[in-house]
Amino acid sequence: MFTGLIAGVGRLAARETRGGDARLAIEVGTLPFDGVQLGESIAVNGCCLTVVEFDASSFAVDASNETLALTTLGRLAIGVPLNLERAMLPTDRLGGHLVSGHVDGLAVAAKRRDDARAVRWRVEAPMTLLRYIAHKGSVCVDGVSLTVNEVDDAGFEVALIPHTVGHTAFHALQEGDAVNIEVDLLARYVERLLATKEH
């Protein structure tokens, strides 16, 4: 599990095709990396991935075809900045919201506008995702826990304070870029409970 509070910004160093899927090499950048272990989970732009190799400044993960197809990881350019978060400990503060690292789908960062010192982003998403997104609820965008300011039938809006822009890969986000979306866990479980109750 993760919190959606980005611990560091790294970059995609390499993507190597292996047996039909891919191995990604990721430079850790500003991510605190002490005590990393093989098999550890790290969220990369919101995708929970398993460390299969590492050295002092980088780690490698294997990305399945499912991950490559349903997230942005299969299409990102080498060198692009990445939001990184190591899995939470039971003693960690939960400053964001509970994030599984299981991306629900893709959306588009459609429009950026300044709002005083904040940056507001309009994110266009399919109804299959929007049905779980609520006004003033939580959403995870590229691994970042954000509060939904507005939502309608075509998308939602979030506001990023200067700290968020300065300490995540959002500083490099451009209009038209695809982003990974994970909806709130509670919304999915409520839907499942209601669906099974009908049978």
UniProtKB/TrEMBL annotation:
PROSITE patterns: LUMAZINE_BIND (PS51177). Keywords: Repeat, Riboflavin biosynthesis, Transferase. It catalyses: 2 6,7-dimethyl-8-(1-D-ribityl)lumazine + H(+) = 5-amino-6-(D-ribitylamino)uracil + riboflavin. Its EC number is 2.5.1.9. Residues 1-97, 98-194 form the Lumazine-binding domain. Transmembrane segments: none annotated. The keyword GTP-binding does not apply. Lumazine-binding repeats lie at residues 1-97, 98-194. One of its GO terms (molecular function) is riboflavin synthase activity. It is an enzyme of class 2 (transferase). One of its GO terms (biological process) is riboflavin biosynthetic process. Pathway: Cofactor biosynthesis; riboflavin biosynthesis; riboflavin from 2-hydroxy-3-oxobutyl phosphate and 5-amino-6-(D-ribitylamino)uracil: step 2/2. Coiled coil: none annotated. PANTHER family: RIBOFLAVIN SYNTHASE, RIBOFLAVIN SYNTHASE ALPHA CHAIN. Catalyzes the dismutation of two molecules of 6,7-dimethyl-8-ribityllumazine, resulting in the formation of riboflavin and 5-amino-6-(D-ribitylamino)uracil. Homotrimer. This is Riboflavin synthase. It comes from Thermomonas carbonis.
